[in-house]
Amino acid sequence: MIKYWFKAKLYGWGWYPASWHGWLVLLGFILLVGGGYSLFEKFFSESETLFFFIPYTLLLILILMIICYKTGEKPRWRG
């Protein structure tokens, strides 16, 4: 039996953490987003922070989605 890190949502499309591995990945994502914003804010002006933070966050989201796809149930739209 395969132990998924992420289970498919009951409604819509996406995943939720189903094991401690999944929760750890999600916590790491949240810490990287928050920590990244703090660092950008500390070293850059307001407009530069936004300029660098948006691509950084999109990259983290892409990485999170790849991890969910590789370690979770196959997603499909559920209505």
If you had to describe this structure to a student in words, what would you say it looks like?
The protein contains 2 helices and 2 strands; from the N terminus they run ββαα. The protein is mainly alpha-helical and 79 residues long. The protein is elongated and about 50 Å long. The chain starts with 5 loop residues before the first strand and ends in an 8-residue tail after the last helix.
Walk me through the topology.
Layout: E1 6-8, E2 15-17, H1 20-43, H2 46-71
Antiparallel strand pairs: 1-2
Helix pairs in contact: 1-2
Binned, the helix content reads 55-70%
In the sheet with the most strands, the strands line up as 1-2
Structural class: mainly alpha
- Please count the helical segments: 2
Give the tally of β-strands.
2
- Average pLDDT works out at 93
Encode the helix/strand succession as letters. Answer: EEHH
- The low-confidence runs, each spanning 5 or more residues with pLDDT under 50, are none
Report the radius of gyration as a whole number of Å. 15 Å
